Amino acid sequence: MTAAEPPPTTRPGGRTARVREAVLRAAGDALAERGFDGLDLADVARRAEVGKTTVYRRWSTTTGLIADLLTAMAEDSLPRSDTGSLEGDLRANARLVLRTLSDPRQAPLFRAVIAAATCDPRTAEALHAFYATRIAEWAPCVALAEKRGEVPPGTDAAEVVRAVSAPLYYRLLASGDPLDAAAADRAALAAATAARAGVYTV
Q1: Do residues 95 and 186 share a domain?
Q2: Could you give the CA distance from residue 200 to residue 202 in angstroms, rounded to a whole number?
Q3: Same domain (yes/no): 108, 163
Q4: Do 19 and 58 fall within a single domain?
Q5: Range of the domain at 163
Q6: Are 124 and 149 found together in one domain?
Q7: Are 60 and 124 within 8 A, CB to CB?
Q8: Is the domain of 87 the same as that of 187?
Q9: What is the dihedral sign for C-alpha 143, 147, 151, 152?
Q10: What residues contact residue 89 under an 8 Å CB cut-off, 6+ apart?
């Protein structure tokens, strides 16, 4: 596959926005059902009920389509919670990750994208950008905790946020252990406890 142009950074309006929404929804459905190898632009166009020419002209390749899908998912993610405590904020983050990874549509979609990213540099780049956006959204909860004196000065906020979701992705992709509220809350508690102990200071 050839590299596609990067997706637009602003949301289009009117009919363009409706077409993008329909195509990305169709792409997500196809990924969840068939995986990366089964993703086909013509099939996506059929599912979205738009012309093939429109899809090929705007996204060019399946990789470019996945990149835009991840961009849209980052844009549409729920905003960061502010519960007033580090553990509460991290628990909210863990519950959000849990909701995504246990969703009947989202879970297989993420499996497909992550699998594709292991062998396709463009998909990997898009996936890294997606997670960078999500980490940047939640990192301020650690900065606020530092101001409140909950964690030592110099705590690496991004590392704390990564520590919350990592055990949940491990369950999804590697161990097959249950993904449930207990696992999410335990991941949040472990990350908060480690942060308070200075494990993530730089």
Answers
A1: yes
A2: 6
A3: yes
A4: yes
A5: 79-196
A6: yes
A7: no
A8: yes
A9: positive
A10: 80, 81, 82, 83, 138, 141, 144, 145
**Whether residue 192 is found in the same domain as residue 152:** yes
Token reading at 138: 């939640």
User: Any alpha helices (H) in 2-148, and if so which ranges?
Assistant: 14-34, 41-48, 52-59, 62-76, 86-101, 106-117, 121-138, 140-147
- Residue 105's alpha-carbon distances to 12, 100, 102, 109, 158, in angstroms, are 25, 9, 9, 6, 27
User: What is the amino acid identity at position 66?
Assistant: I
pLDDT tens readout for residues 96-136: 999 999 988 888 888 888 888 888 888 898 899 889 989 99
| Predicted pLDDT of residue 2 | 41
Q: For the segment 42-64, what is each residue's pLDDT rounded down to a tens digit?
A: 999 999 999 999 999 999 888 88
How many Cβ atoms from other residues are within 10 Å of residue 197's Cβ?
11
User: What integer is the mean pLDDT of 158-180?
Assistant: 96
